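To the team - NAI complex, inputs and output below.
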Amino acid sequence: MHVTVYSTQPYDRRFLEAMRETRFADAGIQWHFQEAALNAETVALAHGSQAVCVFVNDSLDEAVLAGLHAAGVEAVVLRCAGYNNVDLEAARRLGLFVARVPAYSPEAVAEHAMALIMTLNRKTHRAYNRVREGNFALDGLLGETLFGKTAGVVGTGRIGLAMARLLHGFGCRVLGFDPYPSPDFAAWGESAALDDLLAASDIVTLHCPLTDATHHLIDGDALARMKPGAMLVNTSRGALIDTPAVIEALKARRLGALAIDVYEQESELFFRDHSAEIIDDDLFARLTSFPNVLMTGHQGFFTAEALDEIAQVTCENLLAFRDGSPCANRLA
Ligand code: NAI
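Output:
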């Protein structure tokens, strides 16, 4: 089976090619790696493939899906959990098989969110640079003890649960909001209404998917309802927060700190080196100017364990498509 892999990075190639040394050795999957992201202009690169393998910033709107279908593609396998970038209705109409990797080391993302919280709170990123320059002054590095703080987890699914467990381990009081709460959450925290969670939490961390209902979930209103000085953490999807409203809250000194691994306009920036270019995105530039904002470029998933699991489940999904066997990861 020929599979065109879009948005290929060196690590994607490494982990997908490594599947040749595993139980998938005889699966007959031939990867065709493309650095280009999938969009209306790059659909033609899939010509001759039965399937395409895509990531978070590939665009799979109706026109692109129709283009893939016309090029002879029958399956789309996402090497990620979120699927907000796929028009599933259109895929169903076109009879395309679509499957994702629903869970790959949820702990990887939760641990990254924890790393952001710890870095931003104790300012280890700044301390690292100071010490390398022989500056051992502590002024400006003051943090807060996490033990005893209240942390609000919005979305208590796989990653939210892992996050609740970590926060509980730090001695935080953990509140959770989820319209479909998991019974497992009770082991690590208390369920709360979103408004109560926002009002009571010193840290609010987002772990819900991006849907119409969660788009700009954290807007000006929600920010006004948050505890003054609280930290907001988003490792889920950029559009969960209204970036201009967050910038206003930071400027007004109401929002205490912001840690993000995702950004609404990230598809223009992330996963590539722009260090020698002028970045035109003024919102992004404003965010980088705050000392109390920490950003990473969508690396929550980026552990060896998670990449290995993504590659394995991607192969399983392709074989389920080829064999017409049941596939629990199927979206369309
Ligand atoms: P999941 O499906 O296990 O959990 C999501 C939870 O959010 C569910 O329990 C659901 O009921 C809840 N939810 C739905 N609507 C909600 C709302 N309006 N308010 C609060 N909760 C709501 O998904 P999982 O695996 O925990 O992943 C969560 C998100 O994390 C993904 O959708 C994806 O966007 C993001 N993600 C980010 C990664 C990164 O590298 N930064 C990697 C993997 C996922």
